[in-house]
Structure to design on (184 residues):
């Protein structure tokens, strides 16, 4: 139980994919100004990560048993695309809305693929894979909200012309990343 809790907290704080590994940083920087959409985007990524981890673990076991580990990335990309498509269909059925612009952002989110690959390389069991997926998904959601807060503060300040836009966002993200190093 302690290990599961540490995996979740590690994914949120110490091993935050967006700030430490810069995986999934594009949606974090691109959507951090749209406050109402942050929760939906973060929860959608978390659900996709959980489902991908749940499917990738038995698939990795099968690939390992057949000595087909070299197909890992190709198979994981296909799994992620299928999961995002199914989640989009379920959202359409339940809420009569589609993921719309979130569809490509989630399907192409490098954090989802990075999570699946790291779970396999670390040799996590099924429960550990799900805990890591939950932690990384919640960490991505936290990163979205952190950057939204930082961007709202930046908008209130004078920023030199050379630093406006993406440069100041990257600088702010690196400062937040340095703060999160304290949790290691």
């Amino acid at each position: 139980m302690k290990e599961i809790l540490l995996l979740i907290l590690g994914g949120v704080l110490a091993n935050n994919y967006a700030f430490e590994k810069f995986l999934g940083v594009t949606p974090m920087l691109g959507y951090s100004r749209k406050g109402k959409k942050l929760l939906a985007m973060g929860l959608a990524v978390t659900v996709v990560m959980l489902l991908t981890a749940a499917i990738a673990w038995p698939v990795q076991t099968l690939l390992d048993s057949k000595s087909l580990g070299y197909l890992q990335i190709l198979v994981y990309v296909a799994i992620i695309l299928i999961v995002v498509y199914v989640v989009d269909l379920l959202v359409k059925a339940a809420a009569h809305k589609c993921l719309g612009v979130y569809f490509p952002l989630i399907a192409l989110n490098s954090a989802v693929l990075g999570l699946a690959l790291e779970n396999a390389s670390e040799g996590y069991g099924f429960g550990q894979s799900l805990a890591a997926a939950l932690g990384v998904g919640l960490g991505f959601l936290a990163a979205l909200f952190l950057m939204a807060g930082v961007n709202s503060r930046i908008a209130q300040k004078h920023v030199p012309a050379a630093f406006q836009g993406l440069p100041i966002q990257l600088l702010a993200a690196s400062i937040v990343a340095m703060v999160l190093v304290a949790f290691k």
Residues 2-183 form one domain. The mean pLDDT is 88. The radius of gyration is 17 Å.
